[in-house]
Amino acid sequence: MPEAPDLQVILEYLQPRLLGRSITGARETRPLVLRNLTGERFSEDIAGRSISGMTRHGKLLFIELSDDRVVLINPMLTGGLRYTEPDEKLLKSVTVTFDIDDGRQLRYFDQKRMGMVYYLRPDQVNETPRVEEQGPDVLDAPLSIEDFRAALRPFRGEIKGILTRGRLVSGVGNAYADEILHAARIHPYKKKAALSGEEVVRLHDAVFRVPQEALILLREKIGEKIHKKERRYLNVHGKGGKPCPVCSYEISAITANQRVTNFCRKCQPGLLVRN
């Protein structure tokens, strides 16, 4: 899943290449991903519009077009973008293609078709799922510890679920939730109500520090390969069975609700009900 650091690198790569450019054509190459809410035919309505802005909030990417149109991309689990020559092989995972007036194409791909591409009027943006419910972006200036405590107060349940829900902070998914909680030394299944004051302080630090540090690394590692998902540098996520980089204890891997949670039982002690 592209999370805030991944999407930020993609945005920084695409902005200087696409701003001011025009879309000469577009097509939906696979069904059930594009949501066209304008009432107009997508391929005809978008042709000739220029790209006037590109922004990101959390795990959502916004492409602003001339004459009151917006493309909103929510990549979800397996979505991504590729900026390429038109003669490059069109993979089966490509679901929407935008022709750019520089002769290249911006392709949205999604292996499992879980993501969504919306074609909207600006007044429809806040009506789309997950837009209004997003908290402050995790790559923006950190909340003060007082504001963070206040924002955390209404939530219930396990702390990892709170992080990935997007309402406390926006842009954290499965991978960076594991990294944040490892850095904060908090068990991922610990209930929010059970967090100590010191754990909240550590969580506050890690929530805003870990994604920023990841962004710096990703800028160096991704380069022009914005379609690649880089996860090898992470400390615990995807490293089940390997030694923890802090204490060398074996990293655990727990699968629940179709996602894998990785953590160190020694650095992040807590009651575990399943293996």
Q: Can you walk me through this structure?
A:
By secondary structure, this protein is α+β, with helices and mostly antiparallel strands. It folds into 2 domains: 4-127, N-terminal domain of MutM-like DNA repair proteins; 145-264, Orthogonal Bundle (Helicase, Ruva Protein, domain 3). It has 6 helices and 11 strands. It has helices at residues 4-18, 42-46, 145-152, 159-165, 174-184, 197-222, and strands spanning 23-28, 34-36, 51-57, 60-65, 69-74, 79-84, 94-100, 105-110, 116-120, 251-256, 259-264. Strands 2-9-5-4-3 form a 5-stranded mixed sheet, with helices on one face. β10 (251-256) and β11 (259-264) form a beta hairpin. α5 crosses α6. The radius of gyration is 20 Å and the shape is globular. It starts with a helix and ends in an 11-residue tail after the last strand. The mean pLDDT is 94.
